[in-house]
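tmp note - Dehydrogenase
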Amino acid sequence: MRHRLNEADVADYILDYHNGDAKAAIKAMQDEIEHLQHQLSLAVVAMGRGYTRGWAPGETRDGQ
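out:
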């Protein structure tokens, strides 16, 4: 089973990874978000509606 870190630990890890540079950390996270959004877009195009029983990911957190 994978150990889940709390949010403060994750934030500290990200900042440490970027040598305390908050702007670099935010930029890296924005780049990662854009990459994941692109990957999700590709997956949506590739999977059929029947496979997901009509569900499709939304652009907002609540899926609407």
